[in-house]
Specification:
Helix content is about 40%, strand content about 25%. The chain is an alpha/beta fold and about 140 residues long. Strand 4 (about 95-100), helix 6 (about 105-120) and strand 5 (about 125-130) form a beta-alpha-beta unit. Helix 5 packs parallel to helix 6. It is elongated, with a radius of gyration of 17 Å.
Amino acid sequence: VELTVHCGNKKIEDALKSMKCGGHRENLLVVECRGRANAFFKLASSMFDGPFRDFSRQLDMLKRIKTLELSFRDMKDIREHMESALSPERLSGRSSLVFFGGKEMSQEAIDAIAFHFASRDDIEFNYFPGGQESPLLVVGVM
């Protein structure tokens, strides 16, 4: 049996890593996750249909995924978030952004976010309706 674990709890993660090393468990991969958004993006990015031993090579790529959970009050707040949290300096070296909008995300907000990244040819931008109650926006950066 081959097992890949995406764990958001540091104590459990450490215990699994210890089990893997101490027990020489080559059939266990532990993916480090920091929070629910990070775990979600890493899980979604690790859909892999090749041999298990080849999946371990993807762990380096998964470590590059950074996530943010954003909530905002109005359109001005959205623009401020885009300018500060997702500035070109902070995105340096990253090539993909994935946004999951919550249930209350307005079309106006979606359009504002898309417009913000429309002129950036160095960043691939995707928006999906996530449907989550909170936060209003989950952002994955790779």
